[in-house]
Write a structure and sequence with these properties.
7-stranded mixed beta barrel; 405 residues; alpha+beta; single chain; 7 strands
Length: 405
């Protein structure tokens, strides 16, 4: 069963439940305690698990514990475990995680015939053992297989490191080649800069010679130009004197025109003020007219509402009169009924009295509304007369103002 995990055909089917990790394991051999570093890993293959322990310093020391369903049944009965095989695997992974955090500790106890791997918790009085497993020394074939696997992994790592070194060496060679190219380019650029400096120096000397020659020509032409300018200055002085005299005469004319303009401007401002005042009066009259028209419309609307209310009250009066006549007819009919309906007749008379009171109240309200309508119509007529008088007076005032202007 231990050989299954060392078979190359089953290598891809193996599942790493706990990758290789270094643990400090207390070795107890014949009452002698010693702490060593061991690599511990947990693997699963189908319905089997294998716990592999190997010494870090001596790779030929390896211990195995392979458990399947039948062997777990023995462990379960021996240690009174309460989980199935899958639960045992999960708890074993949890115990290994606790050992990584130093919450639990591991010890390898050697008896006369076999080894026992114990997972325990340190206590002040006595250590509490959570789980113990019997382990066996690995056969040479398994040790060789795992050593070959380790060697293969180391070879792969060395190959990756060498490939990375080759890549870095190529990058260094490329960098050196680029540095040589840049150095050659810098040398060529220095030569070009020197040539350009010589060319610029030659051009500057030629330009200085040309400018000196121009300066000499300008100095020779300077005297002739000064004489010509003096004659021009004299002629311009004569023209300036004539222009100053003309300018003085024009300024006098402009002063007279400006005075006339100021007087006309004042008159125009006075006319504008008067026009603005008239326009303001006109706008105020228009606003008053619009306000009075709005009030008149509101009053007409109120009169229409009152008329509508009067019509409604007249309808109610008709209905009340009709109800009154109906009640009177019923009263006459009830008088002719036998004495057994005397009480119903009394109730009808009471209702008739109430209706008569409501009719009287409606009649009084209609009289009040008629008086209010007459009073409001009289007020509206007076207001219209006053508006017409005000408009006539304003129109006469405006015409007199226009005539005065």
């Amino acid at each position: 069963m231990d050989q299954c995990f060392a078979n190359e055909s089953n290598h891809r089917l193996i599942q790493q439940l706990c990758p290789v990790h270094q643990f400090q394991i207390n070795i107890c051999t014949f009452n002698v305690n010693n702490v060593k570093l061991f690599n511990l890993s947990l693997e699963k293959l189908e319905n089997m698990i294998q716990l592999r322990i190997s010494d870090v310093n001596a790779t030929n020391k390896m211990y195995l514990c392979t458990i399947d369903g039948t062997s777990y049944h023995e462990i379960k009965t021996e240690q009174s475990l309460q989980v199935n095989f899958q639960g045992f695997i999960d708890h074993l992974v949890t115990i290994l995680d606790s050992c990584k955090k130093n919450e639990l500790h591991i010890s390898l106890v050697q008896n006369s015939s076999h080894f026992v791997l114990q997972f325990y918790e340190k206590r002040s009085l006595k250590n509490l053992i959570h789980l113990f497993l019997r382990v066996q020394e690995a056969p040479p074939q398994v040790i060789m297989h795992h050593m070959n696997v380790t060697l293969t992994n180391l070879k792969d790592e060395v190959a990756s490191v060498t490939s990375q070194n080759n890549f870095l060496q190529n990058e260094l060679n490329k960098r050196d080649f680029h540095i040589q190219e840049f150095q050659s380019e810098i040398a060529t650029l220095k030569c070009k800069i020197a040539e350009n400096e010589n060319m610029i120096l030659h051009r500057n000397t030629e330009e200085i010679k040309r400018l000196n020659q121009e300066i000499k020509n300008i100095e020779t032409n300077k005297e002739f130009e000064e004489n010509r300018l003096k004659t021009l200055v004299k002629t311009y002085e004569v023209k300036v004197d004539q222009l100053t005299r003309d300018n003085f005469a024009i300024n006098e004319k402009l002063m007279l025109e400006s005075k006339k303009y100021e007087t006309l401007k004042h008159e125009l401002d006075d006319m504008k003020k008067k026009l603005n005042a008239l326009s303001a009066d006109n706008n105020r009259l228009k606003n008053n007219l619009n306000i009075s028209d709005g009030k008149e419309k509101q009053q007409r609307k109120r009169i229409d509402d009152i008329n509508q209310q009067m019509v409604e009250y007249e309808d109610k009066m008709r209905l009340a009169n009709k109800e009154k006549s109906n009640l009177l007819a019923e009263l006459e009919a009830e008088k002719q009924v036998c004495s057994t309906k005397k009480r119903a007749l009394q109730i009808a008379t009471d209702e008739l009295a109430k209706n008569q009171e409501t009719i009287k109240q409606h009649e009084l309200m209609i009289e009040k509304l008629k008086k209010g309508i007459d009073w409001r119509s009289l007020v509206l007529l007076r207001m219209n007369d006053e508006k017409q008088r005000n408009l006539l007076t304003l129109a006469t005032v405006g015409q007199l103002g226009m005539k005065k202007n």
